[in-house]
Every structure is written in C-alpha cells, then in structure tokens.
C-alpha cells in the first residue's frame, strides 16, 4: 500500500512540476485512434486554488496549443498488445502535436480503456481528536477504510472520497473546519489489470516521455460529456470506442462506478467486412457514410456501391441495399447495448434520483443509435459531445474526443484522491497491499 501510495503521489508531483513549467501533453490511447493534445497553462492562477468550484473551475487556466491524432496500431480492447507498433503510433501523435504547438513536451498524462476495471465502495469512520475537522482527521478517516483483497495482478487506478458524513450529517464534499465528533467517509476505488498499465507505462517510457498521471477513459469521458447537473444528480456515461465501451456512473460530481464492455465499433466493422466480403478499410468507409441501426422503407431502395479492387469486374461492381447494411450492423450494436444494460443493472443505476444516460465516443455517431439505446436501456438517452475547451481545433470537438477533452479537465483540475492526503504511516490499512505497484520500482 505504501508503494502504491508513493507512486501515485510521485506522479501527482510530476504533474504539478510540469504545470508550473507551463506545458503538459495528454494522450488518449485508444483501439482505433491515438489522440494527443498539448496544453499550456498560464501560471497566473494556481489551479489547485480553484478547487470546489466544480469540474470546469480550471477551464480558464489552460489552452490547447497542439493537437494531433493518428490511427492506433498494436492496441486491442483498449490494451497494448504489440509494443513496437503502439510506440510508433504514440511517437507519431506526440511529434505532430509538438510540431503544431512549436514546443517540446516531456510529461504526458495518459488515459486508456479496457484493462478489466472493477469498482469497490469502501467506508471508514473515526472519532475526531479536536472539535474541529482537520486535514489530519481526513487522512485518518481515509486510512480507516477497509480495503478489500482485490487479488494478485491488480492495481488501484482511482481512489476518491465521494462523500463525507459528520455526526450523521451526510453529503458533505469537504468537512474541513466544521465542528463535530464522528467523521465517516465513503470512498470509490477502481482497480484495473496490472499488466495493461505496465505495458502502457513501458510504452510511454520507450517514447522518452515521463508519465505524470493515469486515468480511466470511462472516468474522463464522463467528466467532459456530462453537464454539471447530470454529474450532480446522477447519470451514466457510455463511451462507445473502437475496441470497448466504457461505462461510468456519476453522482454528486464524483464517479461512483466504472466498468467496460469488450465490444466496440471495430467489431461492427468486422461484421460488415465478413457479411459483405469486403476488406476492413472498405467496411469502415461504408459504415461511416451509410451506416445506421433503424431501417425505413426508403432503405430497401437506397443502393450502396461496394466497389473493390480484386480485378474481378462482376465482384467489384456489386451493390447492397442500405437495409441489408443496417441488418448486419444492428445485431452487434444491440449486443453492445444489452451488455451495457447488464452493467448498469449490476451497479443499481435504477436507484439513482436521476437516470440520464449519455452516449459519447466515436461509436455514438451511428444514426438512430439514441432511439435504439432508449428502447434497450429504458431511460432517457442523449448524445453527448465533449465540453468546449480553449484552443481546441474544430476537428477535435466531436464525440470521438470525449476522453481526450476529459483528460484536459482532469489534468487541470483533478479531484481529490486518497494519495493527496498525508496518511499517517502507522495507520495504513490492516490488509497490506505491499505488492501493489511493485512494478513502478522496477520500471521507474
């Protein structure tokens, strides 16, 4: 536990140092694309001081000065599977963004999907030593949380206090300075597969970059695609990516649950490729230009030229009706949404006061998807685009950039995590997690 705690703290300090220098890059390592944004921070306002004003408090503090995307290679289900190819793709994106920004970047904050995320709710309670809640009391109550044995080969990615209660007055965001006797906390902890993080960290290191932070794509997509009221009252963000669909649930401006479904847009492309017997690239083009999930009478008559370059004139001249294409796409999209519904039910989403669902990510752009999602998920569904941030080029304002934009907000205005507090060493949780993040010692 001490190692884990020190590692995350080291990354936080590195991020602060990078922000003081004024520039940091955010990297969204996805299955279909790798996006890099270079942020410049104006040192005038120290962003930590803006805390507690909401997710957008840091917005004035930074500007996007470089942006680039490249086709992702060597990534499957949101996890690195071919180190060399992913390294080249990351280098390409970083170099293009640096060129646009006209500045060299040493520190990156990365987000990734996949890695089999698992959510835990922890609780702790302590008596207050003085009458007034101090920073030390917060540290003690956090360390009083009973950490579950989450198994070998897992790492803690996020550990955030989501609710404080003081003498049964619940719903406090920050109890410091308030008077009371008993302090309790609810904490949300997200663990992921250690190997996936190690591979990504190693890949970034091979690109001669310092890793100054890691985040889950599901989390940062929620930060950028949900509006403030949705984050407050309860909403789910479904980030439909190329290799996986991230699910996150927010309440009182904190993420309280995250999971992912290992099916994404590339599986839809694969189905079209097999169904029409065309190459993946052609299937992707047909999906993008003509795809949909709801067929009308018109679609039987709308014919799509498949084209091809096999040299067989008859084979290359084929056409297919749009209704047939929708017939291939719809079952896979329904499967993704059914899986999402299973995750939401397991999380008890139906018990939240508000049950808004927001679809974002590149896969959310399929026409008719919101209507189909409303039918399958049975809630109000809307399509979410990322919030606007200063300097973001027009090409990077679409739903496919929700996690990249969320990373900017995460970098500028991170929420309190467990390791931001000085937890007294003699009060580390009883169940030692010594092995957690042992790899950092080996790799850093």
Notable features of this structure?
444 residues; alpha+beta; 5-stranded mixed beta sheet; 36% helix; disordered C terminus
How do the strands of the widest beta sheet line up side by side?
3-2-1-6-11
- What is the number of strand segments? 18
SS summary, helix count = 14
Form type: globular
Unreliable spans: 44-60, 424-444
Helix content: 25-40%
Using the CA coordinates, give the radius of gyration.
23 Å
Beta-strand percent range: 25-35%
Topology readout:
Blueprint: H1 2-21, E1 23-29, E2 33-41, E3 62-71, E4 75-76, E5 79-80, H2 83-101, E6 107-112, E7 118-127, H3 135-143, E8 154-166, E9 169-172, E10 182-193, H4 194-206, E11 210-216, H5 217-225, H6 228-233, E12 235-240, E13 245-251, E14 254-261, H7 265-276, H8 280-290, H9 298-301, E15 303-305, H10 313-316, E16 319-321, H11 322-346, E17 356-360, H12 369-377, E18 381-383, H13 402-412, H14 438-443
Parallel strand pairs: 1-6, 6-11, 12-17, 17-18
Antiparallel strand pairs: 1-2, 2-3, 4-5, 7-10, 8-9, 8-10, 12-13, 13-14, 15-16
Helix pairs in contact: 2-4, 5-13, 7-8, 7-11, 11-12
Task: Summarize the structure in words.
By secondary structure, this protein is α+β, with helices and mostly antiparallel strands. The protein is built from 14 helices and 18 strands. The strands form five sheets. It has a five-stranded mixed sheet, with helices on both faces. A five-stranded mixed sheet has the order 14-13-12-17-18, with helices on both faces. Strand 4 (75-76) and strand 5 form a beta hairpin. Helix 2 (83-101) crosses helix 4 (194-206) and helix 11 (322-346) packs parallel to helix 12. The two termini are 17 Å apart. 47% of the residues are buried. Mean pLDDT is 80; it is low at 44-60 and 424-444.
